[in-house]
Specification:
CATH superfamily of one domain: Ribonuclease H-like superfamily/Ribonuclease H
Number of helices: 38
Structural class: alpha/beta
Strand order of the largest sheet: 3-2-1-4-5-6
Oligomer: single chain
């Protein structure tokens, strides 16, 4: 029996916002046109707390009018918050009515935030012997935690975790929860617009607290700091103390904890049902009735449960059957899925779920296991390795599962020869074309096995990729998926090997029984996720995209990543020295123009120089913290009028280039291969574009001479090879011309005309041969700007045109290309009706704000409605090209390898005797990857480095 003296205080708006955004992909709109997402999300969450915990005392706490005291202290407090979505504004009165009908007390005080109300009530309740649980995801509440006050945090993917003193100490690396206030004061809080100490992030704040104990301790000992950090802390001490005050939750709100008033009472069930009926909450009604029912009425339907209100509200948790995380989860699964099964509300784990996980001994047991393995038609497998870098990681074991709740673990010997002998026994399985292989992030496993000369053949099913196509805006790691869709919390890797750092173990050092439980659980859970996602892929109309694009591309990317690219480290070292000299020259110029030396990298010092000493503008823009803004957009606007500004921008650009690429790339060369191996991620960008990481080769600057020189460092493997770069020419413009069916633009592309000159000719009404360079430049800006929803203001900033001239040019452009304008309008209308747009291959981009009443928010969604199908279609097309080229290279047994993909460009390490054949092959496959009404055109170049080839 739980402690009778337990009080649950719910942070209303925190859960309302989470509820609203949980449904953002597919908002709950009833027949009256009301957005009920926030109400449904909040109520599901509240009922979940009641079902799980059966609290005796509970209240829901709201903000009202913001924090008057904090705004008085700091006018910009929370000033950067976006306007509350209309769907939340309209939801709150309904939530109030529901809570009143449920007889749940609403705690609110004008001029105070819910944080302060909860803080005050929790302290009062503690004095009366209560344990208080603050239901909120907001980390700020950690400062309130004591031996009797806890955070009860909703976890992404479903479920809750309780933070007491040990959890807060561990999370923030502090001794006392009160130090959370100092932590927040030091690092600031962008959501509340608490400025914090400039340059102090999470790691630095934790370090300072470990060293000095508090904000005051830090400010009293700045002599122990060094360099720029010392300057920043000393210059912003008052700002830090103010930030600490702003982050402190008040404990003296004029509210009173009267235990009797907070008792969880019998709800007025009929009244709640009436409200739910008006809002058209059929399933939520069912959930509500089950929550306030005993075992005898749990299975009642809304139509047959008229006497439910006479039942005992104090039913124990075992008597209550929940509708389950999959059906009602606030944090992941789609509540509209009628096929979800009912499950117990408690989160399942390996300790509570029956399973049979077995390690396989060497010798005869291994042979018998492999014989059984070869009889399967579909198997899920998961490799366990010595590290996360597949280039260097060695196999520790492989887990297999083909039946839910069961699986096997094959441990690998540390001796490389013996490990190879064991993998050879598994070769018939991995290279069997008829056995389907399932995994989570199979690209990693494929790369690890490739080191052992094993190729994974046959049909593949990757649960991470499947979920990316089903719900691209969610996270896709296995723990989140397991909790969201299976109501299961997997064993944490940290419980086996510890946290990152010098004391972290290798998986080899983990006892075999724990390796087995952890590894086979991964395979088992992944197998269960596959069963779930197979149906979802069809429901989301993404099965074909999965089978024909993403899964084949997985193999292509694995091959490219394993290949890597050669890097000229000596050139980068010399470039670094040149950049050093250039940066010092710019420093000298800036100091001369400023009349004094100062820290150019300090926004505060720079702002004072530019806007107080030099007085470059009459009314300089300021940040929320009161400092002069020296952001790039502010300075770029002034650069053409002031040489010092341009020098500062150049200084910033060169400094970033040096630190991010020139000095960083040589460190990322893999010792075992002598090459750079980027990691392409398929599941990051919602548009379908690939992302590049470790290192990011897609963001190397190419608009400046120095930025372009970085590409010079990427070279062929040796003198028998050359780099070939193949780049789609104006692919996004070609796609928008084809999709809009704009004949004038289509004709220009078909005739091989310069599209920008052609546009300028029509827009400015001059013969194409008389188009000036400036007219072509302006037309080019509009051509590309239309895809991104350029405005007259934006166009005037990018050209020498005034705002009026820019508006006239855009109006003329649309008049010249009327079908293009119609297409844009149609895309926005489609998005409004369906909540998403899609590419030529059916990849969806969900637009949560397309019907927002906030014009700024809605405008951004409308621009995405136009841009996403264009950018996404371009991404899909180059993926098809990559798959086809990779296949042709393998079939022809060519020595040439595909190395890089950078948006619309592919880079090949080309064996010189194969060059002409490869050029023809690449051009043909890229230009014929997908048929549009506009021909695709590919530019090819070769060179001894990437810069020459680009």
């Amino acid at each position: 029996m739980p402690d009778q003296k337990r009080l649950f205080l719910v942070d209303a708006y925190a859960l309302i916002f989470r509820g609203y955004y949980a449904f953002i992909k597919n908002p709950r709109i009833n027949s009256k046109g009301e957005d009920t997402s926030a109400i449904m999300g909040f109520m599901n969450s509240l009922l979940d707390v009641i079902k799980r915990e059966r609290p005796d005392h509970l209240a829901v706490c709201f903000d009202k009018g913001g924090s008057a005291d904090r705004v008085e202290m700091y006018e910009a407090y929370k000033a950067n918050r976006d306007e509350t979505p209309e769907g939340i504004k309209t939801a709150v009165p309904h939530i109030y009515n529901i809570l009143k009908a449920m007889h749940i007390p609403i705690m609110v005080k004008e001029g105070y935030e819910a944080d302060d109300v909860i803080g005050t009530l929790s302290r009062q309740a503690e004095k009366e012997g209560y344990k208080t649980y603050m239901v909120t995801p907001d980390k700020d509440f950690a400062q309130l935690v004591t031996e009797n006050i806890f955070m009860y945090r909703p976890v992404f993917g479903g479920g809750y975790e309780t933070w007491g003193i040990p959890e807060v100490q561990k999370k923030f690396e502090i001794e006392d929860p009160l130090q959370v206030i100092d932590f927040l004061g030091m690092m600031g809080d962008s959501s509340d617009n608490i400025p914090g100490l400039p340059g102090v992030g999470e790691k630095t704040a934790k370090k300072f607290l470990a060293q000095f104990g508090s904000m005051e301790g830090l400010l009293a000992n700045t002599d122990q700091l060094k360099g720029k950090m010392k300057e920043k802390v000393e210059a912003n001490g008052e700002l830090g103390l103010l930030s600490k005050k702003l982050a402190t939750i008040m404990l003296d709100v004029p509210v009173e904890f009267n235990a009797k008033d907070f008792e969880l009472d019998h709800p007025d069930i009929e009244k709640v049902k009436d409200i739910f009926q008006e809002l058209e909450f059929r399933r939520l009604t069912d959930n509500f009735l089950k929550t306030f029912a005993t075992e005898s009425t749990t299975d009642s339907t809304p139509e047959t449960s008229g006497t439910t209100e006479q039942k005992d509200i104090k039913a124990t948790p075992k008597e209550i059957k929940s509708a389950g995380a999959g059906q009602f989860s606030l944090f992941g699964a789609d509540p509209s899925n009628e096929a979800e099964t009912v499950s117990e509300y408690t989160r399942k784990t390996a300790d509570t779920s029956p399973h049979f996980y077995q390690s396989v001994a060497s010798g005869m047991a291994t042979k018998l296991f492999i014989k059984n393995l070869m009889n399967q038609s579909s198997v899920c497998f998961d490799t366990e390795t010595t590290g996360i870098n597949p280039i260097t990681a060695e196999l520790v074991g492989i887990a297999f599962s083909w039946e839910i709740g069961k699986g096997f673990y094959l441990p690998f010997p540390e001796d490389k020869n013996k490990a190879q002998e064991l993998i050879e026994l598994l070769r018939p399985f991995f290279e069997n074309e008829h056995i389907e292989k399932t995994g989570q992030n199979l690209k990693y496993d494929i790369k690890v096995l490739a080191k052992y000369n094993i190729e994974v053949k046959g049909k593949l099913f990757d649960t991470m990729l499947a979920h990316y196509l089903i719900n691209p805006d969610m996270r896709h790691n296995m723990d989140v998926l397991a909790e969201t869709y299976l109501n299961y919390t997997p064993i944490s890797i940290e419980t086996l090997i510890g946290k990152k750092g010098k004391n972290q173990l290798s998986m080899r050092e983990v006892p075999l029984d724990k390796q087995t439980e952890y590894a086979v659980e991964d395979a088992d859970i992944t197998l269960q996720l596959k069963a779930h996602f197979q149906n979802e892929l069809n429901q989301a109309s993404t099965q074909k995209l999965f089978d024909e694009i993403e899964i084949p591309l997985l193999r292509v990317l694995a091959a490219m990543e394993l290949e890597g690219i050669n890097l000229d480290k000596a050139f980068l070292n010399s470039l670094s020295e040149e950049l050093d000299r250039d940066i010092k020259t710019l420093e000298s110029k800036i100091y001369t123009e400023a009349g004094e030396e100062f820290n150019i990298a300090s926004p505060k010092q720079l702002g004072v120089i530019l806007f107080e000493k030099l007085k470059l503008v009459d009314k300089p823009k300021k940040t929320k913290s009161g400092q002069y803004s020296t952001a790039e957009d502010v300075l770029s606007y002034l650069a053409k009028d002031h040489e010092i500004i341009q020098n500062i921008l150049d200084f910033r650009g060169l400094s970033k280039l040096k630190s991010t690429y020139v000095d960083a790339l040589p460190v990322q060369v893999e010792d075992t291969t002598g090459r750079v191996h980027t990691d392409y991620m398929q599941t990051v960008a919602a548009t379908g574009r690939l992302s590049s990481n470790n290192p990011n080769l897609q963001n190397i600057p190419i608009r400046t001479e120095r930025g372009r020189q970085v590409r010079k460092a990427f070279i062929p493997r040796h003198e028998d090879y050359t780099l070939l770069a193949a780049d789609y020419s104006q692919i996004e413009l070609r796609i928008i011309a084809a999709l809009s069916k704009e004949e004038t633009m289509i004709s220009a592309f078909k005739n091989g005309e310069d599209i920008h000159a052609s546009t300028a000719s029509k827009v400015f009404n001059v013969p194409i041969e008389e188009v000036t360079r400036e007219q072509r430049s302006n037309a080019k800006t509009v051509n590309f700007g239309i895809i991104y929803g350029v405005s007259a203001f934006g166009l005037s900033n990018q050209t020498n045109l005034s705002r009026a001239e820019s508006k006239a040019l855009i109006d003329t452009y649309y008049a010249t290309y009327p079908k293009l304008r119609n297409y844009i309008s149609d895309q926005v209308d489609f998005a409004r009706d369906h909540g998403y747009v899609q590419t030529v291959l059916g990849r969806r981009r969900y637009l949560k704000d397309i019907n927002s009443r906030n014009a700024v928010v809605r405008g951004a969604a409308e621009r995405n409605a136009v841009n996403a199908p264009i950018q996404g279609s371009a991404a899909d097309i180059i993926k098809i090209a990559m798959i086809n080229i990779h296949q042709k290279l393998n079939e022809g047994n060519f020595k040439t390898k595909m190395l890089l993909q950078v948006h619309d460009e592919l880079v090949f390490d080309t064996y010189k005797p194969e060059l002409e054949t490869i050029k023809a092959l690449v051009k043909t496959e890229m230009e014929n990857a997908y048929k549009l009404d506009v021909p695709l055109d590919v530019d090819l170049d070769i060179g001894d480095n990437w810069l020459e080839a680009h």
